Amino acid sequence: MLKSLQVITDPLLDKNPVSVHILGICSALAVTTSVATALTLSLALIVVLTVAAGLISLIRHHIPTSIRLIVQITIIASLVIVADQLLQAFAYEMSQRLSVFVSLIATNCIVLGRTEAFALHNRPMPSMLDALGNGAGYALVLLVVASIRELFGAGTLLGYGVLPLVADGGWYQPMRLMLLAPSAFIILGLLVWAVRSLRPVQQETREFVPYEPERQVQP
Amino acid sequence: MIELFQRAIFEENLALSFFLGMCTYLAVSKRLDTALGVGVALILVQSISVPLNHLLHAHLLSAGALTWLGLPDVDLGFMRLLTFIGIVAGLVQVIEMLLDRYMPGLYRSLGIYLPLLAINCAIIGGSLFMVERQYDLAESAVYGVGTGIGWALAIVTLAAIRERLRYADIPKGLEGLGMAFIVTGLISMAFSAFVGVRVI
Q1: What is the DSSP string of A18-78?
Q2: Is A193 part of the contact surface with chain B (CB cutoff 8 Å)?
Q3: How confident is the model at residue B4 (pLDDT cuts 50, 70, 90)?
Q4: Residues of A with CB below 8 A from B184's CB?
Q5: For residue B159, what pLDDT is reported?
Q6: A182/B178 touch (CB, cutoff 8 Å), yes or no
Q7: Rounded distance, CA A112 to CA A122, Å?
Q8: For position B72, what pLDDT does the model report?
Q9: Does B34 touch chain A if contact means CB atoms closer than 8 Å?
Q10: Rounded CA separation B172/A201 (Å)
Q11: Does residue A208 carry a pLDDT above 60?
Q12: Residue B148 has pLDDT above 90, yes or no
């Protein structure tokens, strides 16, 4: 039990797919202007990832190695289409705000990465737990970035006013920059810095080491 | 047309304002020459795949497109994503084979980057945006070339800066990925200065 719990909690910080493996940032940041869109996309990704991992793990002995990628992509893309259609049917406004980014879950490296690296070699139950954990790790990063951007960019969280705006007679002047693209990159960069300061194991080794000549010993 | 082209390169840069193709963008931007290779390969694939996907979408997938088959009520729009992924993957394979056969020199320098692009969000995303914004054939061709050039420009800029940063003294935890993000943020800010600038 403890081990399966670890499969879920590991990807949250120690093996976070975004900050450690640099997976799945494509399409992740564009939806972080508000918490609501980030939450919807994260939920969609977790569902797609978990179901895909379970399905692929179930048929892993029947997939020929040479065509395994195309089989996985087809399964994932079909699930994404289902998720997209469900969103359009039941949350049309949200699906308009997410525009093409729901479809882009299909090309998200986390999904293909986890099914390829884990689900192809493990039984369905651990695969789904691993998928759930990685999805949650991705969602965590997305939600942190989205909360910062929405709070400081618009003074709200999930649409509820937190900081009283100057326009409404309060004291907070919203930072419009937070709602533009550059801030997402910079916040994520600082987030990576924070995580790596807490977990020095994740730091990258230097490619270039300054040349230090050996000091001549005076006789 | 020129406005669309310019917007695709600067204002609506796929990498810097829509965060597309980020995995490749960060992974292969450590050296300038590899970044240049990926950039050129992406321009090539993007400028073929967007118009091609437009043709497919207009004549096979969109609502009422199958009238010529006697099926005016069929809407295959939901098959868009699966079709685009298949087309791009197939296209990359064909380009690879053609280059290998007719331009072995170019193949040797670009060949290893082409498979990376088979499932790149920038390429799929470009095609999906083309459908969402309802471009016609000429516009989608211009859009394809423009977004390709914009993405290549972004990755080459980042690679050039990262090559210099290798000699800089950066805090331990910020080195590599963290710094790449922050530099990208600054490049993105610089690119957003082009908003509203028009040549003509």
Answers
A1: TTTT--S-TTTGGGTTSHHHHHHHHHHHHHHHHHHHHHHHHTTTTS-GGGHHHHHHHHHHH
A2: yes
A3: confident
A4: 185, 189
A5: 92
A6: no
A7: 15
A8: 72
A9: no
A10: 11
A11: no
A12: yes
